[in-house]
Amino acid sequence: MTRRLLPFFIAIAVIAVLTIPSWAKDNSSGALSARISLDSTTTINNTSTTLEPGEYTVVAEQNQAKFEKAGKVVAEVPCTLKTLSGKAAHTEFSIDQGRLLEIQIAGKTEAIEFSSGN
How many CB atoms lie within 10 A of CB 87? Predict the structure, then answer.
């Protein structure tokens, strides 16, 4: 009986090994995503886009960032994906004089930067 089951177990093991790459969650699409909570009205760097206080999901892909609130896209702005020197320890964002400048995402080596030239 055990000799009959051996090929079955080998086949299962081979399938498991071949599917390991699909188990790993990577950033192959190039998109970065983060959740942020704003306490006050905030402008996205030098754009005319203003965000009201609340919880947002930010998804940045290539050179565009989308801000979603309650499942709806409320803003789309230009951005740059900036390479960090190492993985960010925490998700944090930089605000200077009411302007959102950058979002670093925990465990990622890239940050979403809202360039001042836009």
Answer: 12
